[in-house]
Amino acid sequence: MFGFIVPLIMSHEILVVEDNKDLAHLLEMHLRDQSYHVDLAFDGVAGLAKAMAKTYDLIILDLMLPGLDGLELCKRLRSKPPYTPILMLTSKSSEVDRVLGLEIGADDYVTKPFSIMELMARVRAIFRRVEGLKSEASDIDDEIIRIKDLIIDTGKRKVSLKDKNMDLTAKEFELLFYFAKHPGRVYTRSQLLDYVWGYGHDGYEHTVNSHINRLRAKIENNPAQPEYILTVWGVGYKFTE
Prior knowledge:
Layout: E1 13-17, H1 21-33, E2 37-41, H2 44-53, E3 58-62, H3 70-78, E4 86-91, H4 95-104, E5 108-112, H5 116-138, E6 144-147, E7 150-153, E8 158-161, E9 164-166, H6 170-181, E10 186-187, H7 189-197, H8 205-219, E11 229-232, E12 236-239
Parallel strand pairs: 1-2, 1-3, 3-4, 4-5
Antiparallel strand pairs: 6-7, 7-8, 8-9, 10-12, 11-12
């Protein structure tokens, strides 16, 4: 009999930081059913230790944790390389904390109670978006985009304006990067949601507006008269040519 070689499929490494052990083990079971490798931590201190000791492809992080809460853990993870996507688990009553989480650097959030199907869809969307960004970045030899006074370092995920570093959230960076890769192309809000967030948010077009407003406040000399991210009235937005 002739043998044949089965190609190995690299599985994503995921860290789940959740103090509700029943929920943590439920997530672990469903994630492993999708061939992901999963580690668990049941408090913020243990979660930080595991995240610093090993490189993960995704961290699923509960907002309310004993020892070290999710916001502080997210902040500490974002202060050091490498960049790891973070999916935050929040409650309906924590809208302010949810916004803070996104500002600090969480890539997305799921509101409790949630369906397992929804969470899995968010996980897949994050991985699709990360792979898409890597593919886009690989097309740039030096991984640097320069437009006027704006410099985007895709490898380090850093942005500077007139030699001053800009402090962008994960989504702000990805939104700016996508715009800058396609100057002059007009996008609707729905298209930007799909491209940057990785899936459709029906009725959440205001999410794009708020992110663009915050991005303009950081990179534009005069946000009321933007030079980089331009509004195309009745359609959406485009990046300057």
